[in-house]
Model the fold of this input.
Amino acid sequence: MDASGDTAGRPIVVGIDGSISSEHALRWAAEVAASRQATLRIATVWSLPVAYWPLGAAAAYIDPAALAAEAGALVAHSMAELRDELGARAPKIEVVAVEGTPARELLQLAADASLLVLGTRGRGGFASLLLGSVTHACVHHSPIPVAVVGDDSPLEGAGDVVVGVDHSDGSKLALRWAVAEASRRGSRLVAVHGWQLPAGITSQGMSPPPVRDAELIADTDQMLTALVDEA
Done:
């Protein structure tokens, strides 16, 4: 992940599929792009559906031109709506509709971006799942920061920036990115480190955890402060 905070000239990419979740992500991404004076790249990925028959899987007989046209209409309509809603505040907008595997194509489209924005669930998602499969794959494989926007998330710019911190390299990258992001927004940065005290095992089973050690707390606070100061 690029944690430098240098986002000048790099677009914001948002993946949409027509779902309510992706519509909320689109508006969140538009606010980010407007605040950064960055180009907003609205992307959707389509593919031929697969039908499952007793003898195996086969591509359904559907005209790919119709699917391509539908995908193009989706991003064009989203662009027009954003321009109407934001007026003079609207960022420069690009639209892309491509065929392929959604996660792979979105990551490729975001290769030159500063941020990839996705909703929590797509049209095929289940309400019981925390993340849709596409979002889950992008979070785990993206080389750039990914913003996962919940259906009830406030618009970008509201609230604190909260980052979890430990000694891992990934955590240090996230911390540096969070510092730059909080500075850009003028927001408070809240760095959080948590730990779990081990429980002893006796002949009767698990025993209660030991009393909180003041020295451990002091050492942890010193570690957290040093990491934040370095960032």
Confidence is low (pLDDT under 50) at residues 125-129. The radius of gyration is 22 Å.
